[in-house]
Amino acid sequence: MKVLVTGGLGFIGVNLASYLRSEGSVSEISAVDWLEESTPAERAPFDHVSEGCFASREGLAMAEKADVVVHLAAQCSVQDSIADPAGTFFENVGKTETLLEHLRTNTPATRLIFASTAAVAGDHDGPISEATPPAPLSPYGASKLAVEGLLSAYRGSFGMKCVALRFSNVYGPNARRQGGVIPSFCRQLLADNRMTVNGDGEQTRDYIYVDDISAAISAVIRREAEGCYQLGTGVATSVLQLAGILADLAPSNAPRIEHAEALPGEVRHNCADITKAQAELGFEPQFDVKEGVARTFRWFEDMA
Q: What is the rounded distance in angstroms from the CA atom of residue 296 to the CA atom of residue 286?
């Protein structure tokens, strides 16, 4: 089986490629990514890496040769999407439509696995399931929801095999350029023993270790799943709880916690109901947040 990963040199793509390699479940795995600053270690899991956009002529040619396209490439910053909504929609929606239309025209049997986000649901106090009415709070979340609509349309109208995986907050090693609270905390602790918390820190997220996301994608490939799946751990962790976990790992016993203004467009609470993924994919997260964060922090220590 041949797999193409768009945005493959990002931290999820690199970890996914290594995971699929370890399983021995694919015969060839390639990446297309316009990132020019990549390391040999990030390229190592791939048979071929193309530097460029997935919607370019070369990127589309690679997609039509694959049995499965894992579509990770995106503008994935909430704050950048607020600063440039139109640019975010072009990158996330317009280019994905180009990919879908190319596959429909040339190789409609190619399966597409799309990295969506729990942000499509917006702010909810309880667990979010696939049936939760979507109400994104940022252009980023809205762009991912728009792509889910495209997948549904191409599946319903043309019989294309598409699946949307709504990732919760993914973290883990190989996050050299990754934003988000866990990488930011790790970098700050190692630089000057502090952590900056936006807002009061009581906001909660469902943090899922990248190997568990890779396992879910592998299950989707094996089972040829379609539709939409919510992926997370089903456990909500506040930012202050996360800071406490990392404080226990820090070089000093008393890291400074500084508070900054809450960020616009950020949801207050977000946690996944993974019942459907458990039942249909056999998905069971293997890493709790303490173990996953410890592994991630050790990776940052090794890279420092």
A: 15
Say which residues have a Cβ less than 8 Å from residue 39's Cβ, sequence separation at least 6: 176
Question: What does the block give as tokens for 77?
Answer: 């910053």
Both tokens assigned to 147:
């792509």
Amino acid making up residue 246: L
| 148-181 b/e (C-beta count within 10 Å ≥ 16 → b) | bebbeebbeeeebbbbbbbbbbbbbbbbbebebb
Total Cβ atoms within 10 A of residue 20: 21
Contact of 278 with 216, CB cutoff 8 Å: no
Catalytic residue annotation: 140
Q: Which domains does the chain have, with CATH numbers?
A: 2-171+208-233+273-286 (3.40.50.720), 181-203+236-271+290-303 (3.90.25.10)
Give Cα 206 distance to the centre of its chain.
Answer: 13
Measured CA to CA, the distance from residue 199 to residue 86 in angstroms comes to 27
pTM score > 0.90 for this model? yes
pLDDT tens readout for residues 166-225: 999 999 999 988 888 999 999 999 998 999 999 999 999 999 999 999 999 999 999 999
Q: Two tokens at 175?
A: 């996050």
How would you label 268-290 residue by residue, b for 16+ Cβ within 10 Å and e otherwise? ebbbbbbebbeeebebebebebe
